[in-house]
Amino acid sequence: MTSGQQLGPMSDNLAYAVSKAALAGATSSVAVDLAASGILLNTVNPGPVNTGYLDNAPEELLQAFPAGRPGEPDDPARLIAWLVSDDGAWVVGQVLNTEGGFQR
Length: 104
Fold this sequence. Notes:
35% of the residues lie in helices and 6% in strands. Strands 1-2 form a two-stranded parallel sheet. It is mostly helical.
């Protein structure tokens, strides 16, 4: 799991941004090594997902989503379930953004 730091700035928390961007950056290289052992690696950026901390999100934040809402836990979970299914078996070394069109 990453947080999409490679997609936009997060200057108020540089250490977090660097660590998450590093995961995305290493995905394709590590995936090549693991695939030889039958392990398929991908990284998912779920974007802002409301786990309670966005219950009272300001209108300005909600406007950053084309559908007018942040993600719910089931939104990225469906992508992850697909990735680990037989249908996702050809997806290797990708960073997938499932953030509802979030505009930074």
